Amino acid sequence: MADLARLRDGAFLVIGRAGMDLYADPPGTSIEAATRFTTALGGSSANIAAAITRAGAGASLLTRVSDDAIGRFVLAQLDGFGIGRTHVLPIAGEARNSLAVVETRLENCQSVIYRNGAADFAMTVADVEGVDYSRFAALITTGTVLAAEPSRSATFRAFDLARAAGLPLIFDVDYRPYSWPSAKVASEVYSRAAALCDVIVGNDVEFGFMAGHHDHGLEKARSLIGDGAQIVIYKMGEKGAITLTPEAEIATGIYRTAALKPTGAGDAFLGNLVASLSRGVPLREAVLHGSAAAAIVVSRVACAPAMPTGEELARFLAYHSGPTG
To answer: pTM of the entire structure?
Structure first.
């Protein structure tokens, strides 16, 4: 069991995908009717890293990008967000960065994601063995990175190396069925990963999937605490979240806003949660910071660029009437 006080030691290392998001423009336009698109950094891991740096903490990414114009776009975007990319390595050949074509609307929001031959899945054991884990406060990964080889084996090797260096392991379940060969394989791999991690974050659908039945999701979350996890956060959409620790269960609500879209909330939540914990914010308040950041992001266009700064989050919390749920 890692010491969570380590979270205050420095920057976070995030494993997983970075890509390009293309948003139908102006907001409200359907993809099939669009004649122009705006671009943004995308990919769940890159979004989490952007949320962390925008919140004032440090983050670096560990992944692969395609050795082409889209890969160079991603590298430029990472630089713009202040995300460390020493361990973002190019790969030549047919591998390509993920592309997501997305709408900014709430009703029937379409998101078309291209993941064929994804560059991030090419991350190798050698890549993760080239990292000095002692430089980081924690290792963060999303479930997406576990969906294929060689990145799956590389990620589990990174877990071993991070644990040996005393880093807490933080796991965002982030289940995307289209990336997996079967639900059975995904469930087995997620359960293996969750059993190794100190902090686990997911929604009720994802925990229900891991449990084998939607109604058993909270039971699964509680079992992870019993198996050694230190924090498990069970998100329930508009009903808020339940944060579980060995000592208590904490219920929190959501911050209601005029949402433009449903995407980006989970990445904003996790990034601001860990950034707040790195500043010594108590757990319940850190969860609320994550919830407030999620509310801000869904009220703005795109994901990474929509992540609030520390000042924006503080202003939102000061003027909002408070969480409900």
So the answer is: 0.97
